[in-house]
Design brief:
Helix content is 64%, strand content 0%. The protein has 97 residues and is mostly helical. It comes from Solidesulfovibrio magneticus (strain ATCC 700980 / DSM 13731 / RS-1) (Desulfovibrio magneticus). This is Ribbon-helix-helix protein CopG domain-containing protein.
Length: 97
């Protein structure tokens, strides 16, 4: 995790069973529940940020397609990927309308 420059206290209400599971896991890992929660939140937020970036990229690609009509067919993409998989360094197919 990156170094924290400013830490703000935040409370979270956990259901009793989850709190117990967290405490048991922390004890087994010789870490604090706080450390496990920070790690879990960091992992979750990073993954969700990456997912959102991918979603935004897909939306932008779709918008570009809707505006221009430029595309490659599934067969063209599959053929290109097959060449790459075979170890051939080939250029990607040209986009067309």
């Amino acid at each position: 995790m990156p170094a924290q420059t400013h830490i703000t206290p935040t409370s979270i209400k956990l259901p009793g069973e989850l709190r117990d599971r967290l405490q048991n896991l922390a004890k087994a890992r010789k870490r604090t529940p706080h450390a496990l929660m920070l790690q879990a939140l960091e992992t979750y937020v990073t993954r969700e940020e990456q997912w959102e970036a991918l979603r935004q990229e897909a939306l932008a690609a779709h918008e570009a397609f809707m505006l221009t009509g430029l595309h490659v067919s599934a067969k063209e993409a599959d053929d290109w990927l097959a060449e790459l998989e075979a170890g051939n360094d080939v250029e990607p197919p040209q986009c067309h309308i």
